[in-house]
Amino acid sequence: MTARKRVAVLISGRGSNMTALIEAAKASDYPAEIIGVLSNKPDAAGLQTAAAEGIATAIRSHRDYASREAFDAALHAVLTGWNAEFVCLAGFMRILTPEFTGNWLGRMINIHPSLLPEFRGLHTHDRALKAGAAEHGCTVHFVTPGLDEGPTLTQSRIPVLPGDTAESLQARVLVEEHRLYPLALAELASGRARLVGDEVIHTPR
Ligand code: GRF
User: Fold this and answer.
1) Angle between helix 16-24 and 45-52 (nearest 10)
2) Which positions ≥6 away from 187 have C-beta within 8 Å?
3) How close is the Cα of 192 to the center of ligand 1, in Å?
4) pLDDT by residue (tens digit) across 163-187?
5) Which numeric CATH code is attached to 5-195?
6) DSSP string spanning 120-188?
7) Is the separation of the CB atoms in 183 and 31 below 8 Å?
8) Does pLDDT of 112 surpass 70?
């Protein structure tokens, strides 16, 4: 097998998607290894999970930087210091500059809890319910400068059930997120999914 790709994960909170990636990468045939977890929040619970797994962690608080550009430069320095080849955003709650997203174009993905392009941004479950959506789900997409706008790598859809609340929907979508994100990273790290221009090219196994 070719060398496993070095992947850093950016988080801001609990890090359950990060944990799903770490667990998946324990398989010897998984094409990526999680080599570092970076948070903009010093108290992000996911940092402790990562450290307990023996993974390098770093904190760069956006509050310590005068501009988005300076903050993103600090993130970039950590990632390059780790020799990261790919970046997974996993509940990372900062908007990134075009320069940063440009540096990682085609090498950085995000998971979003909706069927993009529907419901970009926050409160997706509540908004899906209020819109009367019959289906909801999650999307893994390449990161481009526009928030939740990059080309879709893969999606998972679930039905909205009678009686669903934002909480019940969120819980079922999260189960799908934890299944989907490791699959998507495997596609990316193995080269079976690539960003070419604005399109995602999938190469069958
Ligand atoms: C997930 O729902 C993810 O899709 C969204 O933020 C949430 C992060 O949860 N971007 P966790 O930190 O991975 O548990």
Assistant:
1) 20
2) 153, 154, 193, 202
3) 25
4) 999 999 999 999 999 999 999 999 9
5) 3.40.50.170
6) -SS-HHHHHHHTT-SEEEEEEEE--SSTT-SPEEEEEEEEPPTT--HHHHHHHHHHHHHHHHHHHHHHH
7) no
8) yes
Ligand 1 center from residue 90 Cα (angstroms): 6
Residue type at position 24: A
> Which token pair is 49?
């999970």
Cβ 168 under 6 angstroms from ligand 1 = no
**Which residues belong to the active site?**
112
Tell me which residue has tokens 């509940």: 91
Distances (CA, A) of 121 to 4, 79, 108, 124, 179: 32, 25, 18, 7, 21
pLDDT digits (tens, 9 = 90+) for 149-165: 999 999 999 999 999 99
Check if 15 has its Cβ closer than 6 Å to any atom of ligand 1.
yes
In short, whether 14's Cβ falls inside 6 Å of ligand 1 is yes
